[in-house]
Automatic annotation (TrEMBL):
Main location: membrane
Function recorded in the entry: Part of the tripartite ATP-independent periplasmic (TRAP) transport system.
InterPro entries to which the protein is assigned, alphabetical: DctQ, TRAP_DctQ
Coiled-coil ranges per UniProt: none
UniProt-recorded name of the protein: TRAP transporter small permease protein
Organism superkingdom: Bacteria
Keyword terms: Cell inner membrane, Cell membrane, Membrane, Transmembrane, Transmembrane helix, Transport
Length: 172
């Protein structure tokens, strides 16, 4: 937290924004690869009676990683769904405080999720747990999701600091 207070928060957010873009690009590449694999499997199933073995399993594991890669960019853009029905009549300062508090809670939740994903991945590695059809070690997607969840938490914390300590609601 001290780092965010001593360094210009806008510089931190710009750096985090670049990392979010890289994460989203990585997620997009995974999504394209999954789409191409699904296409190949459907064509193989329809024309050659030979689908890609375990394609559903690969899509499930890949989509989990893909979503984790897109979450930081979504948070950075503040594109999450916000229910503002109850705060419509509140002042701008109150809305900003509530947004900052909510963003702080998101950061705490994603920190907890990143921690538990890391622990779960390491436990799955120790136990040698694999997927049913292809015997893919399930710890790999678990640990591939950790950076996305961690980055989402960092973006949330930086945004909450900006929201809670900015004097001008329009600048946030």
């Amino acid at each position: 937290m001290f780092f965010f207070m001593t360094t210009s928060n806008s510089q931190v957010l710009k750096l985090l924004g670049k990392l979010c873009q890289i994460s989203a690009i990585f997620g997009g590449l995974i999504l394209v690869a999954l789409a191409l694999m699904t296409l190949a499997s459907v064509i193989g199933r329809a024309f050659f009676s030979s689908p890609i073995q375990g394609d559903i399993e690969l899509v499930q594991l890949g989509c989990a990683v893909c979503v984790a890669c897109f979450l930081p960019y979504t948070q950075y853009q503040r594109a999450n769904i916000i229910v503002d029905f109850f705060t419509d009549k509140c002042s701008d300062n109150t809305k900003q405080f509530l947004d900052g508090f909510g963003t702080l809670l998101i950061g705490l939740c994603f920190s907890l999720l990143a921690w538990r994903l890391a622990v779960g991945g390491l436990v799955n590695k120790e136990n040698g747990e694999t997927s049913m059809l292809m015997s893919i070690p399930v710890w790999i997607p678990y640990l591939l999701m950790v950076p996305g969840f961690t980055l989402t938490a960092l973006v949330s914390f930086a945004q909450s600091i900006q929201l809670l300590f900015s004097k001008n609601p329009e600048s946030v």
